[in-house]
Amino acid sequence: MSGARGAGARPASGARGAGARSVSGARGAGARQASEGHRASRAQRAARTLRASESRRDTGAPRASRSRRTSESQQVSQSQRDAGAREASGSQRVSGSRRAKPPSTPKKRSGPSVYIFGAGKVGVALADVIRKIGGKVVLRAAREGLPKRPIEAELLVFAVRDRELPTFATRFAEAGLVSRKTACVHVSGAATAESLAPLRAVSAGVAQMHPMISFASLRRWPSLDGGHVHVQGDPKAVSRARSLARALGMTPRTFPDLDTIGYHAAAGLVANGAAALAAIGVHVLATAGVPPEVAPKMLGPLLHSVADNIKALGFPDALTGPVRRGEPQSVARHLELLRARVPDAVPLFIAAGFAQLPLAKALGEAPASSFDAIRSILHDAATPTASSTTLSPGSSLAPTPSNEQMPRE
Ligand SMILES: NC(=O)c1ccc[n+]([C@@H]2O[C@H](COP(=O)([O-])OP(=O)(O)OC[C@H]3O[C@@H](n4cnc5c(N)ncnc54)[C@H](OP(=O)(O)O)[C@@H]3O)[C@@H](O)[C@H]2O)c1
C-alpha cells in the first residue's frame, strides 16, 4: 500500500456510511505504482498458495470464485453493478461464438477475497490496504445492519467493538450468512477466537487476527508494513488469516497459550500510554514556547526514533536521556519545572523515571551512586508531604500557565 509504505494512507473511497461497498482493486485501479504492483503479486501468490493448499484439502468442495465475484458485486454501487454486467455480457458473447479458450492461457488470479463487517478505524484501514494489494474487498458498516446476502468471500473479518462480537457471531450464524467456504476472524486484541464460537459449526473456522498497530483515524492510517498480527484459533481460519497478514506485509504470530488480556494490556499501555504522554509533552512544550500546533509535528518524529530504537536495539539499549546518563540534577530540574508549570504531569514523570532506573542500571553508564540519587529524588517527589514542601511559590520558573488544556480522564 502506498500507505503501507511510509507516508500513511489515503482514505478508502467512501468507506463510511454507505453500507456494503466493494473496494476491489481488480477493477478501476488503473496504473498502479510499482511498489503496489509488487505487493499485488505478493498477495496473489499468497492467495494462490492458500487456494491451492485448501482445494487439495477440500476435495469435492465447490470452487466458488465465479459466484463469489457475482454475489459480492451485487452488493456494490450501480456503476460497479453495470461494470459487472458488462463483464458478464462479454463472457456470454465469447461462449456464444463457441470460441475455444487456448489451453495455455494462464488463469488470471485475484488477491485475497475479504468481507469486512465494521467500518470503524480498523475496518476502513484494512479495506483500503487489501484493495491496494489487489484484493477483493466488501466493507459493510455494522450500523447498516446485517449483510443482505450470504457472504461469498474466503475470509469474513469482524472489525466491530469487542463487546459486539458474540452477538454479531450469533446473528450471522442464525441468519445463514456464512457457509463452510468462509473462515471468520475478528481483529480484537483482548478477545479470543471463542468470541466467534457461534460461527464455528457453520463456517470454515474461527480465529482471532489482531494487528498490533494503532489505528487512530477513519481518514488516515499508519503503515501496516512490518507490523505483527496475532493469529489464534481453528486451523483453516488461522491459515487464511496468516496468509492475509503476510500479503499485507505483516508478520503473523501464533502463541497458542497466549493470555489475550495480558497481551492486550501491554499493547494498550504502550500505544495509548505513548499517545497520552505525547499529549502531555505537547502541553509542556507549549509552556516552554513551542506553538501547540507545531509540537505534535516535533514529537511525532521523536517517537518514531524511539520506536526505531526499540525495534532495532531492544532493551535496555533503547533507553536514552538523563536517567541513563545518571544525571540527578537534570531529573530534579525537570521535576521542579513540571511541578510549577504542569503539576498533572508529575506523577507520570515519577513513574516513568522509576521505570527507567533498572534499564539505566543494566546499561551501567554512570556510577551506582548517581542512580541512587535519582531514585531518592523520585521517591521524595512521590511522597505527598515531600512534594508539597518542595513546591516553592517563589520558584524562579516562569508563572504557572493554565492547565485547562491538560488531558484529563
Ligand atoms: N483502533 C486500534 O488501534 C485497534 C488496533 C487493533 C485492533 N483493534 C480492534 O479493532 C476492533 C474495532 O476497533 P476500532 O478502533 O476500529 O473501533 P471503532 O472505530 O470504534 O469502530 C468499531 C465499531 O464501532 C462502531 N462505531 C463507531 N463509532 C460509533 C459510535 N459513535 N456509536 C456507535 N458505534 C460506533 C462502528 O460502526 P460502523 O461499522 O457502523 O461504522 C464499528 O463497527 C476492536 O475489536 C478493537 O479492539 C483496534
Task: Describe the model.
It is a single chain. This protein is α/β, with parallel strands linked by helices and 409 residues long. It has 2 domains: 21-91 and 109-258, 3-Layer(aba) Sandwich (Rossmann fold); 262-390, no CATH class. The protein is 47% helix and 9% strand. It has helices at residues 34-57, 65-73, 78-96, 121-132, 165-174, 235-247, 260-287, 295-313, 322-325, 328-341, 346-363, 368-382, 384-390; strands at residues 21-22, 113-117, 136-140, 155-158, 183-186, 206-211, 228-233, 251-253. Helix 4 (121-132) links the parallel strand 2 (113-117) and strand 3 (136-140). Helix 10 runs parallel beside helix 12 (368-382) and helix 11 (346-363) packs antiparallel against helix 12 (368-382). The longest helix is centred in the C-terminal third of the chain and has 28 residues, at 260-287. NADP nicotinamide-adenine-dinucleotide phosphate binds at residues 118-123, 141-143, 159-162, 187-189, 210-211, 214-215.
CATH fold-level topology of the largest domain: Rossmann fold
* Proportion of residues in β-strands: 5-15%
Order of helices and strands: EHHHEHEEHEEEHEHHHHHHH
Q: What's the total helix number?
A: 13
- What is the CA-atom radius of gyration, in angstroms? 26 Å
How far apart are the first and last residues' alpha carbons, in Å? 36 Å
How many distinct domains? 2
Average pLDDT score = 77
**How does the helix and strand content classify structurally?**
alpha/beta
Sheet with the most strands, sense and barrel status: 8 strands, mixed
- Determine and state the CATH class of the largest domain: Alpha Beta
CATH superfamily of the largest domain: NAD(P)-binding Rossmann-like Domain
Bound molecules: NADP nicotinamide-adenine-dinucleotide phosphate
Number of strands: 8
Q: From the coordinates shown, what is the CATH architecture of the largest domain?
A: 3-Layer(aba) Sandwich
Task: Estimate the global geometry from the Cα principal axes.
Answer: elongated
Side-by-side strand order of the widest sheet: 1-3-2-4-5-6-7-8
Low-confidence stretches: 1-103, 386-409
Helix content: 40-55%
